[in-house]
Amino acid sequence: MQKILRDCSVSLRETLRSHQIKTVASLLTCDSAKITSQTDDKKELQSIQHTVLNQFSCFPLSGRSLLDDVMSSFFILPTGCTHWDELLDGGLYSGEVTEIVGSAGSGKTQDISNILSRIKCFQIFDLYSLIECLNDVTPPLYNEDDVFYNNLQFLVVDSVASVLTPVLGGQQISGMHLE
Prior knowledge:
Layout: H1 2-5, H2 10-18, H3 24-29, H4 32-35, H5 42-56, H6 63-73, E1 76-77, H7 82-87, E2 92-93, H8 108-116, H9 127-141, H10 147-150, H11 160-164, E3 173-174, E4 177-178
Antiparallel strand pairs: 1-2, 3-4
GO molecular function, one term: four-way junction DNA binding
Pfam family, one: Rad51
GO cellular component, one term: Rad51B-Rad51C-Rad51D-XRCC2 complex
């Protein structure tokens, strides 16, 4: 409260003190016209109230805009197994952790291996290897015979900074982190 009122006039501070307004909540809920009826501080008090509300309030968002935000980053990754996809309502959902449990020997590892077989991972530590990898991946995208690339839905390049930093003149890389 002291930080909020540090730049206001002395008369306004005295008026607020005389009306027992000591908290931000009481400042925001007070009737500025009633409190400042005997002084010329009404506009200053309203300005402070408005500033505090603008800085510390959350503004309402429509449900539609929230839904649009979620849907723009939401996707379902099919597992490749119709039975798993039925159980999971279409596949693995983005932003969720899916835990698969069952008794020993029930096939959990085999099923996960099947799902992971649909993922390719390349370990790349420099820009030239990244460009080479992207050039290798591009032609199969247009080949309708290659099932993996035909169903490719997204490509992830993790830690682009560690690949680009040496080329752009940044710090040298040691392992997977910058020194």
